[in-house]
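pls design
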C-alpha cells in the first residue's frame, strides 16, 4: 500500500551518488545529474555555466587525469537542497606524468527535481 507521499530529498545521498558516478567515469549519468542551466565554480577551472560547458570541462579533465582516485571524508546536508563534501584526490597527468594531489570542499545545490544547479569548489 502506498501513501502517495514520496521520501524527502536527501542532498547528502545525492552527492554520494554523484561522486560515485565521477569515480566510475560514467559521463552519461554525470551529465544527466546536471540541470541545463547549472553553474560550476572552482579556483582551478573558474566559472562554468550550462551543462554542456561543465561536461566539456569534465571530459577534458579526465582525459588529462584518467586515473583519479577521490575519497570523501565528509558529506553532510547543509539545507534541504544542498550538501557539503570534504574530499581529497590524487591523479597523474597523462601528458606530463606529474602527480596531482588536491584537498578541498564543495557545496552542491540541487533543484526540486534533484538535478544539480550549482557546484562551488574550494581547494584547501
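designed seq:
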Amino acid at each position: 500500500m502506498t501513501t502517495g507521499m514520496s521520501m524527502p530529498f536527501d542532498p547528502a545521498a545525492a552527492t554520494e551518488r554523484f561522486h560515485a558516478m565521477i569515480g566510475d567515469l560514467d559521463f552519461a549519468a554525470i551529465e544527466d545529474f546536471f540541470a541545463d542551466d547549472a553553474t560550476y565554480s572552482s579556483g582551478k577551472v573558474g566559472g562554468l555555466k550550462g551543462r554542456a560547458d561543465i561536461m566539456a570541462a569534465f571530459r577534458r579533465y579526465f582525459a588529462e587525469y584518467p586515473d583519479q582516485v577521490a575519497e570523501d571524508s565528509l558529506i553532510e546536508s547543509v539545507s534541504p537542497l544542498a550538501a557539503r563534501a570534504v574530499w581529497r584526490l590524487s591523479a597523474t597527468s597523462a601528458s606530463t606524468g606529474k602527480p596531482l594531489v588536491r584537498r578541498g570542499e564543495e557545496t552542491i545545490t540541487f533543484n526540486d527535481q534533484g538535478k544539480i544547479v550549482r557546484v562551488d569548489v574550494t581547494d584547501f
